[in-house]
């Protein structure tokens, strides 16, 4: 290993050492007495989302594989949080970073990548991102990170302070330290893979429930086992749902899957702000709707226990989309049916 690689790994490790763990927030819902609900707040990472963990893992993985060396340009196909977090780590170790993204990507995100010293390379439509990243990497002898392929294997699923280990450690002093279920949506599928493998490795009596938005094949792939399924539409819930079964998506680690209507995701996202004064992204709404569905089932059966899900990112980036009622009405239609359901379950909040 070169001195440069050694130093790059050490820098990322030192950064992790200086960083605090993310909070596990407990929701107070009197209507669901006996069922404790928790949110693991991944929006509190320095780059604002759960992709901070992924980016750190992908960089360490590629460095230790010898794929990133001094001066290697790192390339990623991402219009979202992954590009922002990877730009942060690229700057930390002093390598150039290029994010391949659709031309119509929100200006705020482009600015964030550029803020961390990254460059944005634009393609006309999302389906061209992967190929463009491969070509770009070949042209400059760079390294294509390929999150949708490597997310599931870059993270140490047995421990090393991964998100699953952190959740179970933080639950230790709760009334129900082993949650009945952990709920998570899938983008790369990396987080569900880590959660599911860790639960089984430790032998916890916890069900891993994955939630999927409307325009995504993950749910059908999980049900049928057919990885060749494809759809033409992209997901309307940012960060989750894919039109094809990306390699990183591991259906066999998931115990149960649920499809969540996009309107329900946004209704749950808005409802969380009333409950705890926090703006979050729409994928957190998908997670929350899934968790509340499970809570209602448990309540009906007279069961007690704990449920855990994630705040994937904050809501500040979505003020002119999910937080704009006109945008929601135009893009997703009427969501009042879901808002009414939330009121019903949760006693008027
Ligand atoms: C990536 C992402 C997810 C899904 O996480 P994966 O580990 O990639 O499956 C959920 N929400 C947001 C906002 C994301 O960026």
TrEMBL record:
Pfam families named among the record's database cross-references: PALP (PF00291)
Record bears the keyword Chaperone: no
Main location: cytoplasm
Cofactor section: pyridoxal 5'-phosphate
Gene Ontology CC terms: cytoplasm
MF (Gene Ontology): cysteine synthase activity; lyase activity; pyridoxal phosphate binding
Pathway: Amino-acid biosynthesis; L-cysteine biosynthesis; L-cysteine from L-serine: step 2/2
EC numbers: 4.4.1.1
Keyword field contains Cytoplasm: yes
Keyword vocabulary terms for this entry: Cytoplasm, Lyase, Pyridoxal phosphate
Entry similarity comment: Belongs to the cysteine synthase/cystathionine beta-synthase family. Cds1 subfamily.
Free-text function comment from the UniProt entry: A cysteine desulfhydrase that generates hydrogen sulfide, H(2)S. The H(2)S produced by this enzyme may modulate central metabolism. A cysteine desulfhydrase that generates hydrogen sulfide, H(2)S. The H(2)S produced by this enzyme stimulates respiration in M.tuberculosis, mediated primarily via cytochrome bd with a lesser contribution from cytochrome bc1/aa3. H(2)S modulates the balance between respiration and glycolysis, and also contributes to redox homeostasis. Probably eliminates toxic levels of Cys (which can induce oxidative stress).
Protein name (Swiss-Prot/TrEMBL): L-cysteine desulfhydrase Cds1
Source organism per UniProt: Amphritea atlantica
Upper lineage: Bacteria, Pseudomonadati, Pseudomonadota, Gammaproteobacteria, Oceanospirillales
Gene, per the UniProt record: cds1
């Amino acid at each position: 290993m070169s001195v440069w690689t050694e130093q790059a790994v050490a820098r990322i490790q030192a950064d992790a050492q200086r960083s605090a763990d993310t909070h596990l927030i407990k929701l107070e819902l009197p209507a669901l007495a006996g069922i404790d609900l928790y949110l693991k707040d991944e929006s509190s990472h320095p780059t604002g989302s759960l992709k901070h963990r992924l980016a750190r893992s992908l960089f360490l993985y590629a460095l230790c594989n010898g794929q990133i060396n001094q001066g290697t340009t790192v390339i990623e196909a991402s219009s979202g949080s992954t590009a922002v977090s990877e730009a942060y780590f690229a700057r930390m170790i002093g390598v150039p970073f290029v994010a391949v993204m659709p031309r119509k990507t929100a200006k705020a995100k482009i600015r964030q990548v550029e803020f961390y010293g990254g460059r944005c390379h634009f393609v006309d439509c999302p389906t061209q991102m992967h190929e463009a990243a491969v070509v770009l990497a070949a042209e400059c002898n760079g390294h294509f990170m390929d999150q949708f392929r490597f997310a599931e294997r870059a993270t140490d699923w047995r421990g090393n302070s991964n998100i699953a280990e952190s959740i179970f450690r933080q639950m230790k002093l709760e009334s129900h330290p082993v949650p009945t279920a952990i709920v998570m949506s899938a983008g790369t599928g990396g987080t569900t893979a880590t959660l599911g493998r860790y639960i089984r490795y430790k032998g916890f009596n916890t069900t891993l429930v994955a939630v999927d938005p409307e325009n995504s094949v993950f749910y059908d792939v999980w049900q049928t086992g057919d990885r060749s399924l494809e759809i033409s539409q992209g997901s309307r819930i940012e960060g989750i749902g894919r039109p094809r079964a990306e390699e990183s998506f591991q259906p066999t680690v998931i115990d149960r899957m649920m499809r969540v209507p996009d309107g329900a995701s946004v209704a749950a996202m808005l409802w969380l702000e009333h409950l705890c004064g926090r703006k979050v992204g729409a994928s957190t709404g998908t997670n929350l709707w899934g968790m509340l569905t499970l809570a209602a089932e448990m309540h009906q059966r007279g069961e007690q226990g704990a449920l855990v899900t994630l705040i994937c990112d904050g809501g500040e980036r979505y003020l002119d989309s999910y937080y704009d009622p006109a945008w929601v009405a135009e893009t997703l239609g009427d969501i009042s049916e879901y808002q009414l359901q939330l009121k019903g379950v949760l006693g008027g909040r």
